[in-house]
Design a protein that fits this description.
The structure holds 2 protein chains of 2 kinds.
Chain A: E1 7-11, H1 15-25, E2 30-34, H2 37-46, E3 51-55, H3 63-69, E4 77-82, H4 89-94, E5 100-103, H5 108-116
Parallel strand pairs in A: 1-2, 1-3, 3-4, 4-5
Helix pairs in contact in A: 2-3
Chain B: E1 12-13, E2 16-17, H1 24-29, E3 77-79, E4 87-93, H2 100-114, E5 120-124, H3 131-142, E6 148-151, H4 158-170, E7 175-177, E8 183-185, E9 190-193, H5 213-225, E10 233-236, E11 251-252, E12 255-256, E13 273-275, E14 285-287, E15 303-306, E16 315-316, E17 322-323, E18 327-333, E19 336-342
Parallel strand pairs in B: 3-8, 4-5, 5-6, 6-7, 9-10, 10-13, 13-15
Antiparallel strand pairs in B: 1-2, 4-18, 8-9, 11-12, 14-15, 16-17, 18-19
The chains are: A alpha/beta, B alpha/beta.
């Protein structure tokens, strides 16, 4: 019997990014993807994800606001990514909205470390 | 390569690097034609997306085609008790983890429900992630000696849950899975299951189940064919219907997140009563056919229930409070029903 992998939610509006992340992380996670903050929030409401990894720049609103929306969910690991500096990232971290911020590009090891804590 | 460490962007796709918001020099250095900066969040008209890549086979999740037995199949209906004029259903959802503390908590919660007088127990989704957990968690309920009906949701792998239920039956448990025994005739109601979840992306493991429109259509047709002399149907499924307001059974963070395809099943003729789970923020509430809240103890000719998660996790509810484990008692008399939400004293809302 294969052990169940934790379920990870990836949120990014770039299909190529989602595709690459899925390939990279499928070894240790079951993966669901969403292309907007609203779609991500809707999926997150329907089951208990182990972690969510979202890009900051999403088409409808930013990834930090999605993580803030999910902040009260027990046991959810919240990782924000961006290719640029994110305003107020220290406050987001200190208030527990974001568990880890990853500046792109990141290594495979950095990704797993951020998601698995 | 970067200082001896393999550094990847989030978009390594067969030798073509894509990235976003990286310095332009980096794009040039990587010879990226597709490395355009994208606009900031919330700005209008995002640039057209590149062609959708084919998802890698490794990550695709599969549903077992035999997740839900045909409703008219011989053997898919069983009588579990005769009619007595009243049916009391103990309702649990979200049993979740089989650690010692949670099992002890669930045992107390089950005792709290059973002491009110119960004819049958229903378990609606999240019954553990592997056969050992499932056997332990369902065992908490089967050890009451009552019939136990199980409706799997998005976590349970069909073959694993079958194994766990088989082990319990070998020990004398009265447990039926509403994936195979789709209809449990409880005398005063027909308890009808629709296993699985609405969206493949919600599956936690290969071999867990998704229901599709065809399953909903088959269920609707079966309900339509029920003779009038049959007792009322109680639908059991994990995913709640898409609600319209903050009183609904599917409210999470202010959104209605349920399945809009379920609504047509919820009529006084088809399924006047139903049990849902999955959206724990809306747990511990019931509504009628118009979507209006049904207060505990109030009779209703249509009653749709989300009992909330039974496990001991302190879960935030849509009304801003928190509850650490709850269940429900659904009582059907004739064609009317009442509900009582059951919590352990220490789990009361805070």
């Amino acid at each position: 019997m294969a052990p169940h992998r934790p379920l990870l939610l990836l949120v990014d509006d770039e299909p190529g990014v989602l595709h690459a992340l899925r390939r990279l992380l499928a070894e240790r996670f079951s993966i669901a993807t969403a292309s907007s903050a609203e779609e991500g929030a809707r999926l997150a409401a329907m089951t208990e994800f182990a972690a969510v990894l979202t890009d900051y720049d999403l088409p409808d609103r930013n990834g930090a606001s999605l993580l803030a929306q999910l902040a009260s969910r027990p046991g959810l690991r919240k990782v924000l990514t961006s290719g640029r500096d994110v305003p107020g990232i220290e406050a987001l971290r200190s208030t527990g909205v974001v568990d880890r911020f990853l500046k792109k590009p990141a290594t495979r090891e950095e990704l797993f470390q951020a998601l698995e804590g | 390569m970067n200082g001896g460490t393999q550094r990847v962007t989030f978009a390594y796709t067969g030798g073509i690097m894509l990235s976003k918001r990286v310095p332009r020099w980096w794009c040039w250095a990587a010879l990226l034609a597709a490395c355009a900066q994208k606009p900031a969040s919330g700005s209008a008209s995002p640039p057209p997306s590149p062609a959708q890549p084919t998802p890698p086979a490794i990550a695709q999740q599969r549903s077992d085609a035999s997740c839900a037995a045909p409703l008219d199949l011989p053997g898919s209906r069983i009588q579990i008790r005769p009619a007595t004029g009243i049916l009391r259903i103990g309702v649990f959802a979200g049993l979740k983890d089989a650690d010692d503390d949670n099992v002890a908590h669930l045992r107390k919660l089950a005792a709290e429900v059973v002491k009110r007088g119960v004819d049958v127990l229903v378990v609606d989704g999240d019954v553990g992630d592997n056969p050992d957990e499932q056997e332990t968690l369902l065992g908490v309920l089967t050890e009451t000696g009552l019939p136990v009906l199980v409706a799997p949701g998005n976590r349970e792998v069909r073959s694993e849950l079958d194994a766990a239920e088989g082990e319990l039956r070998n020990k004398g448990a009265k447990v039926w899975d509403l994936s195979h025994t789709r209809v449990a005739d409880a005398g005063d109601a027909l308890i009808v299951g629709l296993p699985g979840t609405m969206d493949r992306r919600l599956l936690h493991a290969d071999g867990a189940c998704v229901y599709v429109q065809r399953d909903l259509d088959a269920l609707a047709a079966w309900l339509d064919r029920l003779p009038a002399k049959e007792p009322p149907a109680v639908l059991v499924m994990a995913i709640p219907p898409r609600g319209r307001d903050r009183s609904a059974l599917d409210v999470s963070e202010g959104q209605n997140v349920g399945d809009p395809r379920i609504g047509p099943l919820l009529t006084s003729r088809r399924a006047p009563f139903a049990i849902f789970g999955q959206v724990w923020e809306s747990g511990g509430r019931a509504i009628d056919g118009r979507g209006a809240p049904v207060a505990p103890g109030a009779e209703s000719g249509q009653l749709y229930l989300n009992p909330g998660a039974a496990d001991r996790t302190s879960w935030p509810l849509a009304d801003g409070t928190r509850v650490a484990g709850q269940a429900a008692l659904l009582v059907i008399r004739g064609r009317r029903a009442t509900v009582e939400i059951v919590r352990l004293p220490a789990a009361e809302k805070t």
